[in-house]
């Protein structure tokens, strides 16, 4: 792209030039950023990138361009970006280094999570920038042609540059199919030049006299597109430009045809060489040279006439314009392309690059070929193992194309759809399932297709309500003794505990009964998952008392470190639910901690998100309310990423009425929209907590009663203590007494300090005065042996309220003051206010103090400050929080400023 540059500005692009300069200046001060340049082909995006390079002579520049033939090769573009820095891999934490080495084929190992690859790439780039002492300018041109895996990693890094000396510039065409990957990045639409700038550009690049009416005609036809302006002008004769000869109608446009005409004038050997380069996505000149002997253009490609006008030869063969590669490849005949691919397959090493060889053979195939399709399936499996899901989809599609049997072809399309789901291409997955549907002949593949369809519809705004039924149907396609049947039923049970009362086409009871009908594995053969499935199925289908010992056995098995040998299990939330079902607060806290640590170590971002969401409930109920509110941010994602899974119970404990009501309403809507009944339950729990704290007992009673009525999993006992307290306070003593009976049966069966403490507290609320005090004391004693600080504080509160009502104001003030101070320490504002009002009624003139704010540190800043105070280095903090060391330093500077300290040593002395 040729653009006129005057006074360090691109003609007609003054605003864009100034913005790029500002970004580079900010990066020199340590504040990096990203900009996505989007526009039509020929709008001048590449010229803006060229200008950015010229404006940064002091920068390290890494520049790549997306190539259409490499869109199916996972992490190909990322490899180009990081190639200059791979000798610095040793600076990365072990999990990050291993992730990059695995996806680049430098070592073997388990498939790394995309999130961990993203963190590793960001850390490596940040280290390169920091070690240079200057700015790193990273440019990705034609980003719409970048492979999906690389695009995801680069987009991840682009969102996290604010504390790095990095500028990332991305250029892409308008509305490409992969645009969703780059969503959320700052975008500048590169539109057409205004008429004045268009005229000036046209005239400045023409050596001939151009008549005014011709200028206006070209400007109008080009619609401000700089490439069209220059190319139209270059195709007209001097007489046409001068207005002497008639202009053609329409004016010649910019397309592959012009490139094809130019290529047609090259010698035959050069054309074959260029076709070979176009067909070989690696750009490896050695591969092209080896093919040259067979194809007749020799091994000295650089000396072929006209080649250097089309490609650059600087270590890799790169076409000077993406349209040139397209014109070369599609301008050749089918037979010519097949011949070139056959030769490339022959010169590609079977040992070093078997997948590329197979792909060349596939492109050379004249028709269906089952043996070759099977080879492609094996290649697809290897692509998946490297976390190249986009590459896997492309390979599986080619395998399906080459499959002669329609039934087998349908199975391969379903496999491609499953890979597309893994790649995040849900619309593509849906289209593949539609194509496969007419030829799905075996029950297992049909069930698998239905299961994938449900996942696709959920991600495209559909409902999870049918997932348990679909998983149940898949399970039924396996024999009773088949391990896969049990695994699918465990997955169905796990989904049923999420979908709950919103389930469609089955019930949790049906899933449970199906699981209980399976032959029981022997004690030696039973896995932790088997025990968990049996315990949860018994809970749903048989009853709580029978389920308790089974769930305890499952929790014992889940404590084995081997459960996490292959990473945190997909059904980990079921383990947490089992612990909560038997009121085992110690296991629940330890389980969440293990899942979180494992997910961080694996870089399993999605699993980490859900683990942290669930951990909010444990942290809030154990009194660490501020930590609960900040737990999601510790995953390294922005708040907008987490909005839909942030539980409303945290603001409920904090007494933030409007936020709680809004979040609960949002969860209720989402429960209906997405078929996740657990979200509605979480909303009702939050409303109950808030109402109890505010003393709105009728509201609390209705919220908790609704929660119990929705229960389809035999988990209502978790809401019964709140229902009993609210019922007693709002005059629904009969309902409270009936609920107490149900609670007593389950609490006695569980017999943990948490269960017995809640039972004693609830019994005291309904007891005669002669028994009440002993029960309150028992409740406190039991709950003091748990982690459940909120339940303990509430026991002190209701005990103090009882003492005040029985005219024992001095004793009441002691209990109420203790409860008040505990709630203040937790940040539980609503309950603290309830204590304060009771203190005033008990004759305490001060009535307590307001909840202390935890400083003006953000949750992320507070977490970093605590780690720094614990002697962790910036590198160690970065590895734990999935951010770069530069970002840690950025946050620590803000912490020091806010807290008025100058060193980490002073942080140790602060209460954080």
TrEMBL record:
**HTH luxR-type domain: which residues?**
850-912
SUPFAM superfamilies linked to this entry: C-terminal effector domain of the bipartite response regulators, P-loop containing nucleoside triphosphate hydrolases
Entry's Gene Ontology BP terms? regulation of DNA-templated transcription
Does the record's keyword annotation contain Nucleotide-binding? Answer: yes
* Keyword Nucleotide-binding found: yes
Entry-linked InterPro entries: AAA_16 (IPR041664), P-loop_NTPase (IPR027417), Sig_transdc_resp-reg_C-effctor (IPR016032), Tscrpt_reg_LuxR_C (IPR000792), WH-like_DNA-bd_sf (IPR036388)
Q: Which UniProt keywords apply?
A: ATP-binding, Nucleotide-binding
Per the UniProt record, the source organism is Planotetraspora thailandica
What's any one GO cellular component for it?
Answer: cytoplasm
PROSITE patterns in alphabetical order: HTH_LUXR_2
Name of the protein: LuxR family transcriptional regulator
């Amino acid at each position: 792209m040729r653009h006129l540059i005057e006074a360090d500005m691109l003609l007609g692009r003054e605003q864009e030039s100034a913005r790029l300069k500002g970004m580079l200046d900010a990066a020199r001060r340590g504040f990096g950023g990203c900009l996505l340049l989007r526009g039509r082909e020929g709008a001048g995006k590449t010229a803006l990138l060229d200008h950015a390079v010229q404006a940064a002579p002091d920068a390290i520049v890494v520049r790549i361009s997306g190539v259409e033939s490499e869109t199916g090769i996972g992490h190909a573009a990322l490899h180009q970006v990081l190639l200059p820095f791979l000798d610095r891999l040793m600076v990365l934490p072990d999990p990050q280094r291993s992730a990059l080495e695995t996806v680049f084929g430098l070592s073997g190992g388990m498939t790394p999570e995309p999130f961990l690859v993203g963190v590793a790439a960001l850390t490596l780039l940040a280290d390169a920038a920091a070690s240079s002492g200057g700015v790193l300018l990273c440019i990705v041109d034609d980003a719409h042609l970048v492979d999906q895996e690389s695009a995801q990693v680069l987009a991840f890094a682009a969102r996290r540059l604010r504390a790095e000396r990095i500028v990332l510039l991305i250029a892409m065409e308008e509305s490409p199919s992969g645009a969703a990957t780059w969503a959320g990045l700052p975008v500048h639409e590169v539109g057409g030049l205004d008429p004045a700038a268009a005229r000036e550009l046209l005239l400045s690049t023409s050596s001939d006299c151009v008549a005014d009416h011709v200028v206006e005609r070209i400007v109008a036809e080009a619609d401000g597109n700089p490439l069209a302006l220059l190319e139209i002008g270059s195709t007209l004769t001097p007489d046409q430009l001068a207005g002497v000869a008639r202009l053609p109608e329409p004016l010649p446009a910019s397309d592959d045809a012009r490139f094809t005409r130019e290529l047609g004038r090259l010698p035959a050997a050069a054309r074959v060489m260029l076709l070979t380069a176009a067909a070989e996505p690696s750009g490896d000149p050695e591969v092209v040279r080896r093919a040259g002997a067979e194809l007749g253009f020799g091994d000295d490609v650089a000396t072929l006439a006209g080649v250097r006008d089309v490609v650059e030869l600087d270590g890799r063969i790169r076409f000077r314009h993406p349209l040139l590669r397209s014109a070369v490849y599609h301008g050749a005949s089918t037979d010519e392309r097949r011949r070139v691919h056959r030769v490339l397959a022959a010169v590609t090493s079977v040992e070093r690059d078997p997948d590329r060889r197979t792909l060349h053979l596939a492109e050379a195939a004249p028709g269906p070929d089952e043996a070759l399709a099977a080879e492609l399936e094996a290649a697809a499996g290897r692509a998946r193992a490297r976390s190249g899901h986009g590459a896997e989809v492309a390979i599986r599609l080619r395998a399906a194309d080459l499959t002669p049997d329609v039934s087998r072809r349908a199975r391969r399309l379903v496999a491609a759809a499953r890979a597309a789901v893994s790649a995040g291409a849900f619309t593509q997955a849906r289209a593949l399932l539609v194509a496969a549907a007419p030829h799905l002949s075996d029950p297992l593949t049909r069930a698998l297709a239905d299961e994938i369809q449900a996942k696709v519809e959920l991600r495209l705004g559909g409902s999870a309500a049918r997932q348990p039924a679909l998983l149940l149907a898949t399970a039924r396609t396996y024999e009773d003794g088949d391990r896969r049947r049990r695994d699918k039923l465990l997955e169905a049970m796990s989904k049923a505990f999420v979908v709950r009362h919103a389930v469609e086409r089955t019930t949790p009871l049906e899933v449970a009964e199906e699981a209980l009908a399976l032959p029981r594995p022997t004690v030696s053969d039973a896995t932790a998952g088997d025990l968990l499935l049996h315990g949860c199925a018994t809970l749903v289908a048989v009853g709580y008392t029978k389920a308790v010992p089974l769930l305890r056995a499952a929790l014992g098995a889940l404590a084995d470190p081997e459960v996490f040998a292959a990473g945190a299990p997909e059904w980990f939330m079921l383990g947490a639910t089992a612990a909560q079902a038997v009121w085992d607060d110690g296991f629940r806290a330890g389980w969440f901690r293990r899942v979180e640590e494992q997910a961080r170590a694996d870089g399993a971002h999605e699993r980490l998100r859900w683990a942290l969401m669930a951990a909010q409930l444990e942290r809030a109920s154990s009194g660490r309310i501020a930590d609960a509110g900040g737990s999601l941010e510790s995953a390294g994602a922005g708040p907008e990423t987490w909005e839909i899974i942030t539980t409303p119970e945290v603001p409920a404990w904090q007494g933030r009425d409007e936020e709680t009501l809004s979040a609960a309403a949002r969860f209720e809507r989402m429960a209906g929209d997405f078929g996740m009944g657990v979200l509605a339950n979480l909303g009702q729990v939050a409303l109950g907590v808030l109402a109890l704290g505010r003393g709105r007992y009728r509201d609390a009673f209705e919220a908790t009663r609704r929660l119990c009525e929705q229960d389809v999993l035999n988990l209502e006992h978790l809401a019964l203590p709140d229902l009993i307290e609210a019922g007693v306070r709002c005059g629904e003593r009969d309902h409270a007494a009936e609920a107490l009976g149900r609670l007593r049966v389950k609490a006695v069966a569980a017999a943990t300090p948490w269960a017995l403490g809640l039972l004693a507290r609830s019994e005291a609320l309904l007891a005669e005065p002669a028994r009440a005090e002993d029960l309150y004391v028992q409740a406190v004693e039991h709950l003091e042996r748990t982690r459940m600080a909120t339940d303990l504080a509430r026991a002190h509160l209701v005990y103090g309220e009882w003492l005040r009502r029985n005219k024992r104001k001095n004793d009441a003030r002691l209990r109420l003051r203790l409860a008040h101070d505990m709630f203040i320490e937790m940040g539980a504002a609503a309950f603290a206010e309830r204590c304060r009002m009771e203190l005033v009624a008990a004759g305490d003139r001060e009535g307590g103090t307001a909840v202390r704010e935890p400083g003006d540190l953000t949750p992320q800043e507070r977490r970093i400050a605590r780690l720094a105070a614990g002697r962790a280095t910036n590198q160690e903090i970065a590895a734990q929080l999935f951010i770069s060391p530069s970002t840690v330093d950025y946050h620590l500077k803000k912490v020091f400023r806010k807290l008025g300290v100058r060193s980490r040593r002073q942080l140790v002395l602060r209460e954080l």
